[in-house]
Amino acid sequence: MTGIASRSQLRMAYLRFALFTVPAVLLLGTLSGRASGSGFGNPWFDALVKPGFMPPGWLFPVAWTILYILLGLALAMILNARGAQGRGPALAVFLVQLALNYSWSPLFFAAHKVDAALAVIGLIIVLTVVSAWLFARIRKRAAWLLVPYLGWLCFAAALNWEIGRLNPDASMVAPGAPATDIPL
User: Fold this and answer.
1) Which of 38, 72, 164, 178 sits 20 to 30 Å CA-CA off 29?
2) What pLDDT score was predicted for residue 171?
3) Are 125 and 150 within 8 A, CB to CB?
4) Can you state the angle between helices 147-166 and 59-80, rounded to 10 degrees?
5) How many Cα neighbours within 13 Å face the side chain of 154?
6) In the prediction, which pLDDT does 20 show?
7) Can you give the residue ranges of every domain in the chain?
């Protein structure tokens, strides 16, 4: 068989990739968040002063579910572009930024490293811009799927920065710790 694949064959190949990448990206993101106790309900996070533009807690899992689905679809498009020039570097940059994304929650919520988490978000933003540019050279739709993620990352960076500004000693916050002040 030496013929070129039909459109339906290409679509089915994409769907096979997506059936793997979407659940994998979503599952790894969920595990990262749960393992680090991310979000509201985390005693350390609940004890921090939040910025006025902090959205309600229910929005974060909804937003991240949608964003991880979009990331999984974009990844499937690039994986399906076998033989495309620049595919290897595009996948490498994307996977590095995704690994950094998964490291953010443990760094922020478990290790309480607000400043380091902000630096990681900055790096994720840069790598996402590079990923989008590399993806656009292969599949423009895959690059467009990264745009909402990039917007959310910028918003998350602003939240991270403001939380750090409002809580300069965030790593020292110990909710429920006994007071050391002796009443007079």
Assistant:
1) 164
2) 86
3) yes
4) 140
5) 8
6) 95
7) 8-171
CA–CA distance, 13 with 159 (Å, rounded to integer): 39
The pair of three-digit structure tokens given for residue 138, joined into one six-digit string: 């292969």
- Residue 178 is predicted with a pLDDT of 47
What's the CATH superfamily of 8-171?
Answer: TspO/MBR protein (1.20.1260.100)
Spell out the alpha helix ranges (H) of the chain: 7-35, 43-47, 59-80, 87-105, 114-136, 140-145, 147-166
Residues 6+ apart with CB under 8 A from 175: 43, 44, 46, 47
pTM of this structure: 0.88
With contact defined as beta carbons under 8 Å apart, do 45 and 111 qualify?
Answer: no
Among 67, 69, 61, which Cα is nearest to 38's?
Answer: 61
Total count of residues recorded for the chain: 184
Q: Which two tokens stand for residue 161?
A: 């920065």
User: And the tokens for 162?
Assistant: 């403001």
d(CA 109, CA 36): 6
Q: How many Å apart are CA 115 and CA 92, to the nearest integer?
A: 26
